[in-house]
Amino acid sequence: MIFENHLFEQIINNIDVGIIYIDKNHNIKQVNQYAQEALGIIIDPHKSHLGGKINPGDIVVIVDNHIGNDDGGLTPEDLKVININDKDIKTNDTLIGIGIFKNAEIKPIYKHCRNLGAVCEFKIKTNHLGFHIEAYIDSIEKENVIIVNGIKYSIKFFNSIGHIVVIDKISGNIKFFQAKGYTVRKENIRRLLQGNTFLPKGDKSFGSINLHEKKLEEIVECDALISDLDLILQEKLSSIQNKFYELNQRPALCSIHTIKNNHEVAGAFITLNDASEPYKMLKNRNAILSELEKIQNNYITQNYTFPPNSFQDFVGNSAKINEVKYLAYKASSFKLTVIITGESGTGKSQLAREIHRLYKGDSPFIEVNCSSIPHNLFESELFGYVGGAFTGALPSGKDGYFQMANSGTIFLDEVGEIPNEIQVKLLHVLQNRKFYKIGSSKPTNIDVRIIAATNMDLRKEVQNGSFREDLYYRLNVFPIKIPPLRERTSDIYILINNILKNLSNFHNISYKQLSGEALNKLLNYSWPGNVRELENTLERAMTLCETNILYPEHIYLEDITSQNNILTLKNMLDIAEKRALEDAIIQYNHNKNLIIKNLNISKSSFYEKIKRYNIKF
Ligand SMILES: Nc1ncnc2c1ncn2[C@@H]1O[C@H](COP(=O)(O)OP(=O)(O)OP(=O)(O)O)[C@@H](O)[C@H]1O
């Protein structure tokens, strides 16, 4: 019976045994799904990252059972690139380290030990540069675990393994996580810390590796298997039945048989069973774990998903800003009227531009600052006029902003400043999608998407009569509120990196690093002027700085009130505690039990604090 190739592939991909078929020169002809999983070629498709390399400023998290083993021969000196420079750390030590790549200014967080006992807790749990990071070795499950903002990246080990996760300094996204098959992909810790590149993972992992162009030894690291295979191909052995090999650091039970064509050896096929855990158990366990993970990370995996890299210039990765991005992404798919609210400098205009770009980037985007138009010119600026409409009018007439924005977006910034008589006209445009130029009785039809923004409380303006209620409801179709920077401090580090990069390009000066003290000063400030104030502060600091490092004295903060009001220790602790609770509520998606467990407090203390700080839950 002759199978068509794709049917054969379907069959072998659905059986619970790994199959690798090679020709007599070790060229790979077929590797089924099971074998790819067991060898670490296929990785959990829910997690992914692009290819790249670690760049200066990226946050590196390492969990290594034995320095120098299964990590590419890492040496304690190699750790200097993440600012871990400790003579007490020796080869074979166990290490957990969090540091900034190639930034000698910011202190790392790490712990190490010699002869870690079989069952003992070795863990770091921290809030570093705004990221919730938990890293530990689970000696019972034999698993090295790194959790970043609630998302778990773990890797099983047999004897030891060097696990590494990298957070991108610009986007705040996970840029790299270690996974099975890293030896084949040449992604051990040492090579990565030396600045070598890594491949993409996820749906398109190994997209760049065409298995059919590889030799077996390029995807399977195991000298014993390769030499047994040669014995079989040379017909010195007829077959091998159920022999244990360690393939890519994972134990596997393998059999090898020859394949003959006209009585000549044409190749061999290897069957393998992942022997690190019974496969079925692993499958069930993974299904349960992934369900649990989904429930835990509900807010990330279900509520706030949008394609990665959708936003080019709107930076931030905190739970609060992810919610904003999610809403903006949703809004961009429809021609809805959007109103963006938030304090001055939070990025309302920036977000409006992104919504427009995602929706219809090649059409016009007309930005109108309603607070800068004199009242008597409002109507002509917005709607235009026909020739001779009034004294001083251009004979040819003039198009208004609405007409200029036709087929695209009009962004009405500071919409609360629109005078009353124009509010009626705006309402008319919103309802009828047409307007009248001054001096014309002929309506102009338009096809425009309206995005408005304000830092006022428009509801209050409605109550005190300065904003029309009907217009308020017409505008308030899809509201997006951007939280102030002080409520999302985890965005500050990546915002700083973006701003420094943009500023050094703009001023054509070399990239400047922040000293640890300077970074702390920025992280501990309340930013009343939000991102705009952060930009101004960094621009001033860059101008003042003669060297390549920004020190606290280059950073001038204007918030006189918060600097002069010296808080008591009790006040400071209260503020920190309130913030921790608010962060946890968002991070654990209002799940009481998870919040209580992760903050390590009792139920009664949780309720007492919620009440004391008047936190809405
Ligand atoms: N999330 C962000 N990512 C990158 N840059 C940002 C972000 N938010 C704000 N900015 C930058 O901060 C500055 C202020 O942002 P923007 O003008 O959009 O704020 P705004 O809320 O519209 O302020 P206002 O209410 O005063 O008009 C801009 O230079 C903008 O590029």
Q: What can be said about the biggest beta sheet? A: 5 strands, antiparallel
Ligand inventory reads: adenosine-5'-triphosphate
Q: What is the helical fraction, as a range of percent?
A: 25-40%
Q: Numbering strands along the chain, what is their spatial order in the largest sheet?
A: 2-1-14-13-12
| Tertiary shape | globular
| Tally of helical runs | 21
- How many structural domains does the protein architecture include? 5
Any guess at the CATH architecture of the largest domain?
3-Layer(aba) Sandwich
Radius of gyration equals 30 Å
Mean model confidence by pLDDT: 84
Looking at CATH, which topology of the largest domain would you report? Rossmann fold
CATH class of the largest domain: Alpha Beta
CA-to-CA gap between the ends? 66 Å
Can you tell me the CATH superfamily of the largest domain? P-loop containing nucleotide triphosphate hydrolases
Derived from helix and strand composition plus strand pairing, the structural class reads alpha+beta
Name the beta content range. 15-25%
Total number of strands = 25
Pick out the low-confidence regions.
Answer: 203-209, 279-285, 292-302, 560-565
Characterise the protein shown here.
With 617 residues, the protein is α+β, with helices and mostly antiparallel strands. It has 5 domains: 101 residues, 2-Layer Sandwich (Beta-Lactamase), CATH 3.30.450; 135 residues, no CATH class; 178 residues, Rossmann fold (3-Layer(aba) Sandwich); 75 residues, Helicase, Ruva Protein, domain 3 (Orthogonal Bundle); 44 residues. The chain is built from 21 helices and 25 strands. The strands form 7 sheets. A 5-stranded antiparallel β-sheet has the order 2-1-14-13-12. Strands 5-4-3-10-11 form a 5-stranded antiparallel β-sheet, with no helix packed on it. Helix 8 crosses helix 9 and helix 12 crosses helix 14. The radius of gyration is 30 Å and the shape is globular. About 5% of the residues have low confidence. The structure holds adenosine-5'-triphosphate. The site of adenosine-5'-triphosphate has 19 residues, from helix 9 and helix 17. Adenosine-5'-triphosphate binds next to helix 9 and helix 17. This is Sigma-54 interacting transcriptional regulator. GO terms for molecular function: ATP binding. Pfam families: AAA_lid_14, PAS_8, Sigma54_activat. Keywords: ATP-binding, Nucleotide-binding, Transcription, Transcription regulation. InterPro entries: AAA+_ATPase, AAA_lid_NorR, Homeodomain-like_sf, P-loop_NTPase, PAS, PAS-like_dom_sf, Sigma_54_int, Sigma_54_int_dom_ATP-bd_1.
